[in-house]
Amino acid sequence: MTDPFWKTIPLAEMTEEQWESLCDGCARCCLIKLEHPDDGEIVYTRVACQYLNLKTCQCSDYPNRSKLEPFCVQLTVERIRQFTWLPETCAYRLLAEGKDLAWWHPLVSGDPNSVHRAGISVRGKALSARNIPEEQWEDYIVWDE
Questions:
Q1: pTM of the full structure
Q2: Which domain holds residue 16?
Q3: Which residues contact 97 (CB under 8 A, 6 or more apart)?
Q4: H or E element: which one contains 59?
């Protein structure tokens, strides 16, 4: 039995398909994050990008996400270490730090819903930015990373 690709292929050498498959579908990266002006600490809110489908935890227009939402950041291997705001459970962050994927990751479990059943995703927890004015986002801070 051979090791899975994420254990044998460096991030920089992955195909686009392999890279994209690393996303576990948690949608935590789609949550609005706020930075404290005093110390630069990043905090997460329950407020999700207006283009996030809250039931599927998928972007409603993934190919055009950066055009639709200027703050949507495309994760690349060159920039992955800059994104310190990524959740500690994020596959991109884990692999960049030399760690393995969690048992609930769909590539490990073989089940795209395992991330939801494990309570890792924002399903049932997030609210759409369409319904919450920006000046109220601070009221929805949920955790620090």
A1: 0.88
A2: 12-144
A3: none
A4: strand 58-59
